[in-house]
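Sanity check

After download, print the first record. It should look like this:
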Amino acid sequence: MKVNGVAYRSIWPIGQRSVGIIDQTRLPYELHTLELADWRAMVTAIASMQVRGAPLIRREPALGGAADARSPRCAASQRTPRRRVA
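Expected structure tokens:
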């Protein structure tokens, strides 16, 4: 989409841990962008119709999911699994 001659996408990467979106609830009267930094923000954006779900869902595993996997609270899930003793 072009706004004042500048091309915009509805979703774009911001670094390795976030995505930017155009808040579609404010169109066509205002162009407002949001930064989504984790999967919870992405779920909220889809549920509140700020962005269409399909494009964001397609990008989430690569962007938002990767950010959550690197967070300290996910460290326990990255441990080596215990061996089962027969």
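If your output differs, re-run the checksum step. Summary of this record's structure: The CA atoms of residues 79 and 85 lie 18 Å apart.
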